[in-house]
Amino acid sequence: MSNFVNGFSKKNKLEKIDWIINNHFHNNKKAKDILLRYLNDDLSIQNLHDEFIENTISNFYLPFAVAPNFLINHKYYTLPMATEESSVVAAASKTAKFWASRGGFKTEILGVEKVGQIHFFYNGSFFKLQSFFKKITKNILKNLKPITSNMEKRGGGITSLKLVDMNDKIHNYYQIFVKLNTADSMGANFINSCLEKITDTFKFFIKEKKFLTENGEKIDFVMSILSNYTPNCLAKASVSCKVEDLEKSNDLKDRKFVENFINAVNISKVDTFRAVTHNKGIMNGVDSVVIATGNDFRSVEAGIHAYASRNGNYSGLTNAYIQDGSFHFDLTIPISIGTIGGLTKLHPLVNWAHNLLGNPNSNELMQIIAVAGLAQNFAALKSLVTTGIQKGHMKMHLLNILNQLGADQIQKKEAIEYFKTNSITQKNVREFINKK
Ligand code: MEV
């Protein structure tokens, strides 16, 4: 209990750091130095970071990289990617180049619908509730105007408002299910503000009209919150080329390459253990771009994984098949992101990433993100069914191992040369360094 603290958030940054270092690090100077070294000397940036969240004591950096040569709908993009995983950017770049010479990626938006829910319990008659809800819907929408009018000007707003009977799941449970279009913003604040306003209006009319509770019935509002499951906010990315072309392209010149590639995709459709790893590879690409563009990767992750289970079984998100002598490979995923609001303009590097992409609108960014996911899955499966994943992975991981072992620049250069033709393991690298 000695580490219990009251009023921590009231301390200034240095006081917070000192408290942490005293109480958790036995006053260790090195531990304090690490925090201080990661602070930004440019105060305009540091102050921004300090105010993004509470109790900021340092910054947490991820490598920020770019992957060029992504030909998407006949336009070249250089993708910003923030990730710590060694081989992700290299795989993206290699795949981008590969498909650029085969017509590039094609993408489309299959929907932009966002969702919000108001969860409540009512122990009266459903028909009474339904007729009351119908009566007040106009007033609900009217009361929402101050919140929705701006969004409507940008092409968004509420697209539907429905009362849903959930009694088959929990006794007396109902929802107001709201569908929205949030234009170029991710829309979390907009959706939640709308939902809270709807709840307030609903409550007001219940009190005013006393119609729902006139016989002593009870109505209890539990919560009003957006849903991060957006199965109708979808982007699709695809590639295709002649089967022979793909067959020839694999590193092992393995004639069964395409067949095994398709087998690998099909395995992910029927086996959850494989499906999760398959989709994790897709998320390597998706998350890197989502993070670099300042979007909420937790909500994108949660939504995509739920979508992978939409048919009752968690399964792989890509499809691969042969049709009329051509190989087709595609990915459809829900991506709820924004290109305005949130961190997009506020965080200088995020803003830079948007500039790099040519300041896309949210539909365009959704498509770019879907491409990043498809490219990553292509790279992973291409390695897995030919050389195996470790060859490329360890090549990229070599520098991490060398850094861990404290190798200097000359040793690194020599090691990179040596391990071009020798197998990279922690043990082999250590022995190589020790011999030098
Ligand atoms: C590693 O981060 C991702 C892979 O495991 C994905 C896959 O197995 O498809 C290589």
Number of helices: 15
Overall CATH architecture of the largest domain: Alpha-Beta Complex
Share in β-strands: 15-25%
The major beta sheet can be summarized as: 4 strands, antiparallel
Number of strands: 10
Structural class: alpha+beta
- Roughly how many Å apart are the termini? 50 Å
Bound molecules: (R)-mevalonate
Give start-end ranges of low-pLDDT stretches: none
Percent range for helical residues? 40-55%
One letter per element, helices H and strands E, the order comes to HHHEEHEEHEEHEEHHHHEEHHHHH
CATH H level, superfamily name of the largest domain: 3-hydroxy-3-methylglutaryl-coenzyme A Reductase, Chain A, domain 2
State the name of the first-level CATH class of the largest domain. Answer: Alpha Beta
Q: How much is the average pLDDT?
A: 95
Shape: globular
Radius of gyration: 26 Å
Which fold does the CATH topology of the largest domain refer to?
Answer: 3-hydroxy-3-methylglutaryl-coenzyme A Reductase, Chain A, domain 2
Which properties best describe this structure?
4-stranded antiparallel beta sheet, 4 domains, binds (R)-mevalonate, alpha+beta, 436 residues, 50% helix, 3-hydroxy-3-methylglutaryl-coenzyme A Reductase, Chain A, domain 2, Alpha-Beta Plaits, globular
How would you describe the overall organization of this protein?
The chain is an alpha+beta fold. The protein has four domains: about 10-50, no CATH class; about 65-110 and about 235-385, 3-hydroxy-3-methylglutaryl-coenzyme A Reductase, Chain A, domain 2 (Alpha-Beta Complex), CATH 3.90.770; about 115-225, Alpha-Beta Plaits, CATH 3.30.70; about 395-435. The chain is about 50% helix and about 20% strand. It is built from 15 helices and ten strands. The chain has helices at about 15-25, 30-35, 45-50, 90-100, 125-155, 190-210, 245-250, 255-270, 270-290, 295-310, 350-355, 360-385, 390-405, 410-420, 425-435; strands spanning about 65-70, 75-80, 105-110, 115-120, 155-165, 175-180, 220-225, 235-240, 320-325, 325-335. A four-stranded antiparallel sheet has the order 3-8-10-9. Helix 5 packs across helix 6, helix 8 (about 255-270) crosses helix 9 (about 270-290) and helix 9 (about 270-290) crosses helix 12 (about 360-385). The longest helix is centred in the first third of the chain and has 28 residues, at about 125-155. It is globular. The model has no long low-confidence stretch (mean pLDDT about 95). Bound molecules: (R)-mevalonate. (R)-mevalonate binds near residues 277 and 278.
